[in-house]
Amino acid sequence: MTTFAGPALDEVEGIGALTMGGFLAEVVDRFGPNEAVVFDDALRDGETVRWTYDDLGREARRVAAALVAAGVEPGEAVAIVMANRPEALAALFGAAMVGAVAAPTSTFSPRPELGDLLRIGGAVAVLTQAELRGRRFGDDVAAVRHRLDHVRSVAVLGEASWDELLAAGEAVAAEELDARMAAVAPDDPALAIFSSGTTSEPKGMLHGHRSPCLQFWLQAGLFGRDERTRLYTPLPIFWTAGLNTAVGSTLAAGGTWIAQEVFDAGEALRLLERERVTEPYTLPHQTAALADHPGWAGTDLSSIRCAYGKGAYARHPTVDPDPCWIMPVGYGLSETCSFVSGYGCRESREQMKVGNGRLLPGTSLRVIDPDSGAVLGVDQAGELAVAGATRMLGYLGRPAEECFDADGFFRTGDAGHVDAEGIVHWTGRRTEMIKTGGANVSPAEIEVALRACPPVKLSRVVGVDDRRLDQIVVACIVCRDGETATEADIQRFLRGRVAAYKVPKRVLFFAADEVPMTSSATKVRDDALLDLVHQRLAPAEPTATTAPGAR
Predict the structure, then answer these.
(1) Whole domain around residue 346: which residue ranges?
(2) pLDDT tens digits, residue range 133-181?
(3) Are residue 342 and residue 233 in the same domain, yes or no?
(4) Model confidence over 379-435: pLDDT tens digits?
(5) Number of domains the chain is built from
(6) Is 222 part of a structural domain of the chain?
(7) Structure pTM?
(8) CATH number at residue 525
(9) Quick one: pLDDT at residue 522?
(10) How far is 371 from 128, CA to CA, in rounded Å?
(11) Are strands 256-259 and 35-41 parallel, antiparallel or unpaired?
(12) Last residue of some domain: 252, 271, 304?
């Protein structure tokens, strides 16, 4: 039985405390006067708030004491319905510090979905903010609270209830707080992360303290961050990419997080220049919006060092990037609190093109034959199954035996293999594989190839039932503003990059606002997109559509 494994944790340097409270105490002790968070606060009429590590540690302890005073017990959940702001970090660390489960909850969710998330998480306390772009979260929580018998208290930042919560915590002795923190162990529950499901009810993933903390320490190394790092990201900390890959790993290195509650290209450019950002961490559509903004060329981005290749930041006239730095790539998922495998920023560009990197320390992986359940070996393709230090404790509301196999491995639903060099190769969602003419086609492979196609802004590849071939490959394309392409253009581009049978038989073009997205506007809703594809093809292809699994 072949089990692939990353290095043992005790063989790796740079790993510190593995509880959330211990992590925060360690970085506060090491980097106390350093600037930790910078934020222009709309609740304070745009005032620039600057918290040092000492400030963050103090404010987290205030929240922790307040939760103790409110009667929150170890293992109970505290929902944090806040956008990117210093108090959200203080609330997250403060809750975990006293043994509660911090449940950062999406501010993108409309009121009914917010109620579902609070129900799934079972929160006994809700910490939220008064307003965000005209939305009042206190009112939203009040409107759904009749469905939430488990909620005992709600505090709203910017309203009296927040000050009252913190004031009550002043009666809690520092010794009591320290005792609560000392009683927390790395394997105790600490963090609930919710998926932004595309076709079904979101899932809640429960993680122990070890999962996020280990990702903080390891990813700081993968990205080459240090005390000089000034990282801008609008990715929310209720996503693992925002919490672990961006913010937590920046704190682990002693750097500074430049926060933005809601992405706005013009405001982001102002922050990048004013705060002398060294590393922007943005999603592709956000990077494109910055590059398309009228102020892009005139913004001084000369402080940026972490830019690579032919990306927009590296092409900016004022940027002279570090030639030895390249954006880390890897494979991961929310069930492992992000990275499972990866390449660090100092790997060669040639190596980066091979698979998705090596397994992280403390991580184990098996490749499973999806039909027989047999464990496969080197270079044998199957379903990836993961276990180890950052694997979730389980899905909220589901017994462990429904989440893991008898050996404790989580079946990811992803297809791939591990080569003789120990490199993990992710080839796409197993349930999304398109069977055409007897061969398997990975939509992800084609979508990655299309990223290099100049007119293409967004692509999504799906399979449509076909009487002759079983399925045909269909590419759904959104072109960049001002760009056009034809079906033949896209097919011609791909013929030199993928096998002939993988080239889409049909290419459909959509306007950006025609593509159905999740409420967070970051994932395509496959079910709705396939309805549109079926409508487009119906005159020529009156057949049923097979939906790929949601990611």
Answers:
(1) 330-400+410-431
(2) 999 999 999 999 999 999 999 999 999 999 999 999 999 999 999 999 9
(3) no
(4) 999 999 999 999 999 999 999 999 999 999 999 989 999 999 999 999 877 767 787
(5) 4
(6) yes
(7) 0.83
(8) 3.30.300.30
(9) 65
(10) 46
(11) parallel
(12) 252
